[in-house]
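Note to self: keep these together.
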Amino acid sequence: MDKWSLVLVIVLSVTSFIFGMLIKRKPSKTWLHTIGVIFILGVLVAFKYLGFLNSVFMSLADFAHFLPRFEIRKLLLPLGISYIVFKHISYLTDIKWGLVKPGRFVDFVLYSSLFTIFVAGPIERYERFKPQIEQSRISFSWNNIDKGFIRIVFGLFKKLVLADWIGFFISPVWTSPNQYNTWIRLLALIGYSLQIYFDFAGYSDIAIGSSRLFGIKIMENFNNPYLSPSISQFWRRWHISLSDWIRDYLFFPLSKVSSKSLWQFLFVPVISMAICGLWHGPAWHYVLWGIWHGIALSLFQLWNQFKRKNKRIAKVTKSMLYQYAGTVLTFTYVSIGWLLFR
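Structure:
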């Protein structure tokens, strides 16, 4: 962990812990939660999105000449800031909802800065983490060493053997796509879908296994997502900790804004996934990737509503052939989306 990341973790941990205590003591004052979340998001924007906002403001100034032109300097991006911010928001929100109580400050700092999941998750919840570290000591266990080491080996195999070698073979196609025919480019797209899965899943295995060495159990983050028969199932299996976060702290709260069907079935999925895309990085192609998945989730909700009204269609969707076709269609749609992500 570099020194800037360490300073940021300490500042955010102190601030979030204080807000957590205030929210617990004064639950009726909901503005405490709002201010706490705004502060945490402000830190994320300041460190990660200033350059992105600068390009947006400059484009607006080019379009509307009466707007002032100014340059926003980017700050040094600390490691793991996106994951820290999401963990802290979930911490404050869970206290507000009464799902968890503030613990000791030292426990919260450990939760905030656990190095095994610091850079790329999983986004562990304090609700699951707290019971493991509240005990006076975590006993040494050969079983944890055994399972943790095996998980790390599997993770390294996914990352260094599968993901990196797939990347090695498909890299020339992505560098000069016009030199290859359509079938080769299609194989390269499928290869990239597999590469990005083995990359993320491999890292998660390493993070989960490394945490297990210290006696700490971290939630699973992938569950064969490419075998999903629908886009909804895909997001229940892909980057599970992020999907759960988006669902609980974006999708559900946004759903309560309005009961109108247009809002529920179109705007909520698209807005939620657009934010998910922006969280991955300060660039428009990430936003478009999120919107791509938001549209798919919106269409899937409409399809589910249609099935409930048509028993014959509902019966067909339970067949194995439909499930297989859904798996192929979902994988194809997700793979096309990776074009935007890359």
